[in-house]
Design brief:
heterodimer; A: alpha/beta; Rossmann fold; 12 strands; B: mainly beta; SH3 type barrels; 2 helices
């Protein structure tokens, strides 16, 4: 049972309740930017804490994960019940969607049975009114014995009311009513009746709903209203043939906003500032301070280059998460999972991973981060490990260059085929991992379709900020180290700093790595070095090839692939690959180890170095095998 | 009949929920013997299906719906 806090100066409040009740909106409205989001120990569930000072009193608020019950079957449910039973709290607020009382009261009743005193916050009063639901607050308080408050999540008056209650209410003056005591006695009777297992659970759950029905018959009035906005929208967005093209249109819009209209232009502008003015300014300052050459190179190429490559992803990530948070806030994401589930299930994934995975065609990083929205460990890991196979924006130039150079008559078809290779590999890999690791876990799919709502902008912005910041801080450190390391390999050899990259450690290692591809038709050190630099960033594969074949100034943009291919045709590269070995190289590039940015994100999202190294090694091995099959199979069929 | 066999628009009463991994979650979310359920729609590709129970909407796969016995009430 929650006991009184020792420190009289701080009021400790916990928010609990079902998902989709506006609980997080209340939390965000109360605490605003004065919140910190961490992790509950040992699990990837967000722990949200915030504070506010109201009328001279300091209030600490914790937003517990939204759950339908506290049977402790999921990590979230276990967190909620453990916290409520162990933490020293002054007040536990149960946030309830008033338009959906029956199911929401299930958690309420279950918590009251466990002796946790609650203040009931009947939220979303506006929606309940629209749906013809009227609740008698006084009667409800009497029926349960605990205080009840009405709120409309977003308006200032509701928030002020809540803060007033936080600072004035004393839960000690409340206790279970006679009706509630009678219900608890019945539950105890059932527990002692000799029933076991699922039969016992069924009897208990039935008794809870019987009690809820009894409460509602007493305190609520339901009058019928015409069909709601949600029903009208669902008859288009989640029904019939139109739902799928509408989903594609919305997806396309998110993609355009992120990678064309808003995100990418900001990223490009940032890149220009970092690689241009800022680098020049730092170079000038270092020169002026007479810093050693190697140190200058480390700062300019290694650190600014490396950190710069992290920073230019930030606008994309912020934009993408803004769009996804917004859509999630409207309730549309649940419909996406609903309409796409049969397709995704065939691939071994859940309908809920559609949105995050689609982002993988732009960039793997937000795609991996998007897997957070999935509701179990298996789906999250499978979605995270599927994302890197897709053709991201940085792999496209590799495909475009090789296609233009070795398949000039069929370039577009070959590039398209590589997209298909990516999708097929994502599916094949998911099937492999399912068979290897999750064989015994039956996928379940039970999804609430919440009413459509206008998202709370404060909540959308705070979510976006949290995810963007997390990427910058945590993934950034790993990426930074990776960039410095690869820079060092490319700039030094045993004798010190080198003039040409072809004399560096990178080239020596390239020769070793190249030897791995002897039977793939591209066992040369240049290809080996390109493969290594691709682990830094897929963007650097093309530029590394340019450097190694003596054309350091070639464009790495996909649009310029034809010109680049013409220039490179005059170099040793034309002889280094045949059409078939070029194809094998493209297939390899499509599948192998993602860039350090993506690897850093995998580490952050799975909270596991093991998972990150597994992904890096596993994808390299898979690429090696598939690319070998392409080359040797092609040779057997008589291709060159 | 089972919930899987119900046509869009039908109202049915739940009679029995067969054992499955979902059983406890389904009951927790308000789907217990005696509850009235309205079949709202199927997803465009036929699966999953959406039902209305206790003033909210829930989506479930047809193979899970097949384990829920119901009788028609409207």
């Amino acid at each position: 049972m929650a006991t009184m806090a020792m420190d009289n100066n701080i009021i400790r409040v916990a928010l609990t309740g079902n998902p989709n009740t506006g609980k997080s909106t209340i939390f965000n409205e109360i605490t605003g930017a004065r919140q910190k989001i961490g992790n509950w120990p040992g699990v990837t569930v967000d722990k949200k804490e915030g504070h506010v000072t109201f009328e001279g009193k300091h209030i600490q608020v914790i937003d517990l994960p939204g759950t339908y019950s506290v049977n402790a079957r999921s990590p979230e449910e276990k967190i909620v019940i453990d916290y409520l039973q162990e933490a020293q709290l002054d007040l536990v607020v149960d946030v309830i969607d008033s338009s959906n009382l029956e199911r929401n009261l299930f958690l309420t009743v279950q918590l009251l049975e466990k002796g946790i005193p609650l203040m009931l916050d009947l939220n979303m009063q506006d929606e309940a009114k629209r749906r013809g639901i009227k609740i008698d607050v006084k009667k409800l308080e009497k029926k349960l014995g605990y205080p009840v408050l009405l709120t409309v999540a977003r308006d200032g008056k509701s928030i002020k009311n809540l803060l007033n209650v936080f600072t004035s209410v004393s839960m000690e003056s409340y206790g279970p009513s006679e009706d509630l005591q009678a219900h608890i006695a019945k539950i105890q009777e059932i527990e002692n009746s000799g029933l076991t297992g699922m039969d016992l659970q069924e009897a208990i759950i039935k008794q809870r709903y019987a009690f809820i029905d009894e409460i509602l018959a007493d305190v609520a009035e339901f009058s019928s209203v015409g069909s709601t906005l949600t029903e009208k929208l669902d008859s288009v967005l989640a029904n019939g043939v139109l739902a799928l093209p509408l989903f594609l249109a919305i997806l396309y819009a998110v993609f355009q906003i992120t990678f064309e209209w808003i995100g990418q232009p900001i990223a490009d502008a940032l890149e220009e500032v970092i690689t241009g003015d800022f680098t020049e300014w730092v170079a000038g300052a270092l020169e002026g301070a007479e810093v050693a050459d190697w140190m200058q190179a480390l700062i300019l190429d290694g650190i600014i280059g490396g950190v710069g490559s992290v920073i230019i992803f930030v606008p994309l990530i912020f934009m993408l998460f803004f769009c996804l948070s917004f859509l999630d806030g409207t309730g549309y994401m649940a419909r996406v999972a609903f309409i796409m589930d049969p397709i995704m299930r065939r691939a071994g994934l859940s309908g809920k991973s559609v949105m995050p995975l689609m982002m993988g065609f732009g960039c793997g990083v937000p795609s991996i981060m998007g897997a957070r929205a999935l509701d179990n460990e298996k789906d999250r890991i499978l979605s995270i490990l599927a994302a890197p196979f897709l053709t991201c924006g940085a792999k496209l130039p590799i495909m475009a260059l090789f296609a233009a150079m070795f398949f000039p008559d069929n370039a577009a078809n070959v590039v398209f085929a590589m997209y298909i290779v990516g999708v097929v590999m994502a599916i094949v890999s998911t099937k492999l991992l399912t068979a290897a690791k999750y064989k015994d876990e039956t996928a379940t799919f039970l999804l609430e379709l919440p009413p459509y709502r206008m998202p709370d902008m404060k909540t959308v912005l705070l979510e976006t900020w949290d995810k963007g910041k997390g990427y910058l801080v945590k993934a950034g450190t790993i990426i930074f180290v990776g960039c410095v390391l690869i820079w060092f390999l490319g700039a030094f050899n045993m004798d010190g700093m080198v003039e040409e990259q072809s004399e560096s450690f990178l080239a020596s290692i390239g020769a070793v790595v190249g030897a791995l591809f002897t039977f793939h038709g591209f066992g040369n050190w240049e290809a080996g070095a390109a493969v290594i630099s691709g682990i830094l960033a897929k963007e650097s594969v093309v530029s590394t090839i340019g450097v190694l074949y003596g054309l350091p100034d070639i464009s790495a943009e996909a649009e310029d692939a034809v010109e680049t291919a013409e220039a490179l045709s005059a170099t040793g590269m034309a002889a280094a690959f045949t059409s078939l070995s070029a194809l094998a190289f493209m297939v390899f590039s499509q599948i192998y180890t993602p860039c350090v940015t993506a690897l850093g994100t995998i580490k952050k999202e799975t909270n596991s170095w093991k998972m990150m190294f597994f992904a890096a090694g596993y994808m390299f091995a898979l690429a090696w095998v598939v690319s070998l099959i392409v080359y040797q199979g092609g040779k057997l069929l008589g291709f060159e | 009949m089972t919930l899987k066999e119900c046509k869009t628009g039908m109202s049915v009463r739940v009679e029995n929920i067969g054992d499955s991994l979902l059983k406890e979650r389904l009951m927790t979310m308000g789907l217990i013997p005696g509850t009235t359920v309205k079949v709202l729609r199927s997803a465009p590709l036929g699966d999953p299906m959406a039902i209305g129970i206790r003033s909210y909407n829930l989506a479930m796969r047809r193979e899970d719906a097949d384990k829920i016995e119901v009788t028609q009430v409207g």
